[in-house]
Amino acid sequence: MITKIFKKNLPGPAKIINGSTIASKILEEYKYKINKLIQDSGTRPGLGIIQIGDRHDSNIYIQKKLQASCKIGVDAFLFKYDKNISKNQVLDKIIELNNDPKINGIITQLPLEISNRFDYTDLTNLVVPEKDVDCLSSSCYNNLCNHKFLENFVPCAANACLKILESINCSIAGKRVVILGSSKLVGLPLKHLMEFKKADTFLCDKTTKDLKFLCQTADILIVAIGCSQFINADYIKPGAVVIDVGINYDETNRKVTGDVHFEQALQKASYITPVPGGVGPVTVSMLMMNTYKAALKHHRNKISHG
Ligand SMILES: Nc1nc(=O)c2c([nH]1)NC[C@@H]1CN(c3ccc(C(=O)N[C@@H](CCC(=O)O)C(=O)O)cc3)C=[N+]21
């Protein structure tokens, strides 16, 4: 009897959100739009990717970005440097890409393998705002903090979380959103986006006091801390929407896991994103969207300036 009542209170099993399907649809949409832009302008959108070092995970993500670009008609160029490259050489490359009309978007794949030889923000800040498709420069980030979304791009991984919520018709206004991990790529921008959408937003990390209790209050729990299966059933409010942005590589059994213990969360949440096949592919599709938007803007400016 007791187990019956207990089971009644559990909403699980949760619906699994298929990020690959969401991403495929978005890529189809932009493939179509890019085709039209190519017909109108005679040029393809161009994306420059800067990589320093040879991290295994970065290699995989960059491969995904190159594949998506190829699939939808974006010309992507990878500039891969040895980890001992001088700062000035990379700065020069960014200046060159800033001035190259074939390049519409520039990203520096983080983390850079520069072991504190210099400050990576000197690189990300050099990217001109109209090509900053990752929104990593401080000027773009400041715009985001001031809710000036029209002036620049929305960071890809944070935008992917919004797209995923949209795909399940999850309203955000008035909801309690708890975001774990305050990185520049995900947590920080997402906090501002959620506040803009009138969510009751908490940004925290592993060191936050009463973290478990705070997570238990979340209608929407977004986890991006890079700590394999850190979030177990105890952290999840029954019926919550759980978005797992974490990707952790286990070198020994070569498996990829998220920051959420998937099987446990499945029994408690109403919706959950898997890893792999969740936020990752949608993030890549958002980069393609931003690159298209940059190219479209470039084309329109060219027309209006003769
Ligand atoms: N400047 C910058 N911009 C980024 O957008 C950026 C970055 N730095 N640094 C690292 C993160 C991570 N990231 C991912 C991209 C694709 C997948 C992806 O497609 N993952 C697949 C496959 C994973 C696998 O097979 O290992 C999946 O989750 O299904 C994941 C993660 C972009 N990032």
Automatic annotation (TrEMBL):
Enzyme Commission no: 1.5.1.5, 3.5.4.9
Keyword Hydrolase on entry: yes
Keywords assigned by UniProt, alphabetized: Hydrolase, Multifunctional enzyme, NADP, One-carbon metabolism, Oxidoreductase
Functional pathway: One-carbon metabolism; tetrahydrofolate interconversion
CDD domains for the chain: NAD_bind_m-THF_DH_Cyclohyd
Example GO molecular function: formate-tetrahydrofolate ligase activity
Signal peptide residues on this chain, from the entry's feature table: none
Reactions this protein catalyses: (6S)-5,6,7,8-tetrahydrofolate + formate + ATP = (6R)-10-formyltetrahydrofolate + ADP + phosphate; (6R)-5,10-methenyltetrahydrofolate + H2O = (6R)-10-formyltetrahydrofolate + H(+)
Domain Tetrahydrofolate dehydrogenase/cyclohydrolase NAD(P)-binding: 155-298
PANTHER family assigned to the protein according to its UniProt record, in alphabetical order: C-1-TETRAHYDROFOLATE SYNTHASE, CYTOPLASMIC, C-1-TETRAHYDROFOLATE SYNTHASE, CYTOPLASMIC-RELATED
Keyword hit for rRNA-binding: no
Domain named Tetrahydrofolate dehydrogenase/cyclohydrolase catalytic: residues: 17-134
One GO BP annotation of this record: tetrahydrofolate interconversion
Xref: Pfam families: THF_DHG_CYH, THF_DHG_CYH_C
Any one of the GO CC terms: cytosol
Quaternary structure, from the entry: Homodimer.
Protein name: C-1-tetrahydrofolate synthase, cytoplasmic
Alphabetical list of InterPro entries matching this protein: Aminoacid_DH-like_N_sf (IPR046346), NAD(P)-bd_dom_sf (IPR036291), THF_DH/CycHdrlase (IPR000672), THF_DH/CycHdrlase_cat_dom (IPR020630), THF_DH/CycHdrlase_NAD-bd_dom (IPR020631)
